[in-house]
Design a protein that fits this description.
352 residues, 14 strands
């Protein structure tokens, strides 16, 4: 999923001094009192009331282990892990497809199957145990409800002149949700050629690059943008502080149903994690029934465990948002294999 890397707590090797540094460099310490998570943004609340805020605070209270968070765009998180491969600083990475597959392909993940992963659908976890979804989610677009009585219905509607310099989507290859724009276009238009032809046309309205999807929601809420990309969990969760944004799913064309695809937050144990023992315990915690029930109630997302059926108000509202929306399943192996080619094609088509 997003924003430039920014530590929300001390990060091992950067802000942690003294004896704490002995936990860096890939040496696992079972007695450590902190771990570091590199994550796509969207799960931390703008006012400190999000899923991560609650889960991290509860975990520290329960175990005494502090969870340090570093947020980034999905692609940026993997790039940072790759740069730090010789001196690993993160213990866990949480990112969106296809970047979790990319992290695995680069040899950045270790094998670990958290407790409860057998309750996660096969499509939402790696068969070799390198990663598993911890929060399910779906790709979407958002619009300003004050200035638009109805959201755009199709992709073609987004090319209307009224959206010139009022539409923006995060950068494919950098942000997970931005990459999702390309994934959906490939599906809806039936391949790379027609997808890129459309995105070239859409570029006339696009404000320009954005490394973070999260930064587009406030702009849409204020009316600086009329339309932007996003994901259901993030945008639904922040409607409390940004009530003018509405969620919609563009249809492939006239007569087609709105559609989307799953875009889960997937977590993996970082290879040579400096605090691997504690990181495994935290991954277990993320998939525990008590935390999975909070995914909707606190985070505005969808539980990753199939045996969790939430009944909270958020879960009911999310069901309404998804009602009537067709769900397709991308071929993530193909996207991971050809991601560079797709991104290069997008750059050529849009002049980005």
């Amino acid at each position: 999923m997003r924003s430039p890397l920014k530590p929300t707590a001390a990060v091992c090797g950067a802000l942690v001094l003294g004896a704490a540094l002995s936990g860096c460099g890939g040496v696992s310490r079972a007695d450590t009192k902190e771990i570091t998570v590199y994550s796509a943004d969207g799960l931390r609340g703008e006012k400190g009331d999000g899923f991560y805020d609650r889960v991290f605070a509860d975990y520290e209270k329960k175990t005494g282990v502090k969870v340090n968070l570093v947020e980034s765009g999905s692609g940026a998180a993997v790039q940072r892990l790759a740069r730090e491969k010789a001196n690993t600083k993160a213990d866990i990475v949480v990112t969106l497809p296809p970047f979790i597959q990319q992290a695995d392909g680069k040899g950045l993940l270790d094998t670990y199957r958290p407790k409860g992963e057998e309750r996660v659908a096969a499509a939402d976890k790696d068969p070799n145990g390198k990663w598993t979804a911890v929060v399910n989610n779906y790709f979407c677009f958002i619009y300003n409800k004050q200035q638009l009585k109805q959201p755009p219905r199709t992709w073609q509607d987004l090319t209307d002149a009224r959206f010139k310099n009022k539409l923006q989507y995060s950068t494919p290859g950098v942000a997970g949700d931005g990459t999702a724009v390309v994934v959906k276009a490939l599906h809806d238009f039936g391949g790379q050629g027609p997808a890129m032809e459309f995105l070239k046309k859409l570029q006339a309205n696009n404000v320009g690059p954005a490394s973070s999807t999260g930064q587009l929601a406030p702009k849409t809420d204020k009316g600086e943008l009329l339309v932007a990309n996003g994901d259901v969990q993030m945008n639904y969760a922040n409607t409390k502080s940004m009530p003018n944004q509405g969620i919609f799913f563009p249809a492939a064309g006239p007569g087609a149903k709105p559609s989307t695809f799953a875009l889960p937050y997937a977590a993996g144990l970082v290879k040579n994690a400096p605090h691997a023992a504690q990181a495994k315990k935290f991954l277990d915690h993320l998939l525990s029934p008590e935390v999975q029930k909070q995914v909707s109630a606190v985070g505005g997302g969808f539980a990753a465990r199939t045996d969790i059926t939430p009944t909270d108000r958020n879960a009911a509202e999310l069901a309404k948002i998804m009602d009537g929306v067709e769900i397709f399943r991308p071929d993530w192996n193909d996207i991971d294999k050809n991601l560079s080619a797709y991104i290069d094609a997008w750059k050529a088509a849009t002049g980005s």
